[in-house]
Design brief:
There is one protein chain. This protein has about 180 residues and is mostly helical. It has one domain (about 5-140). About 30% of the residues lie in helices and about 5% in strands. It has helices at about 5-20, 85-90, 110-120, 130-145, 150-155, and strands spanning about 80-85, 100. It has a two-stranded parallel sheet with strand order 1-2. Helix 2 links the parallel strand 1 and strand 2 (about 100).
Length: about 180
Amino acid sequence: MTADTPRNRKAINLRKKVKKNNPNFRRHESWRYKRLKTSWRKPRGLDNKMKAQVKGWPKQVKIGYGGPRIARGLHPSGYEEVLVHNPDEAARVNAETQAIRIAHTVGTRKRILITSIAREKEIHILNPLVREVEEERIEEEISEEPLLDAEETEPEKEKTLKKPRRQKKSKGSES
């Protein structure tokens, strides 16, 4: 159950080699001010030395620094990543070449369904995040939920007493 084919391994190794030769892209003057994080931001401004590509200043991110085309979209494990939102999408994944990444918007119950489908088809999950204990507990809750009749689903109308409204103070009477 590995996508560690010679072609994928070669692509991943090539990507590592190319990345090693690329400069470390840092935000302009992040080394000067503590308030600026080092994460990349495009330099802007007329007098910006980095934008002007002055010798001695760090390099900017450009299209030429991209990785090899054959390695794009590959996870370091060698699988092609597929973003999954529901169990139907998980069922359509090719277990030999693709791995599942469950979307962050998916709740725990649907995540468990996707995980169970992936286990049946022996699909690799890149971000399972659900602990086995939680998974078992939620599966038990799902199986124990009684099916409600139509009569029980209608909310009963309860008589509620209205609270008396608070009276506003008039501007003229200050006591």
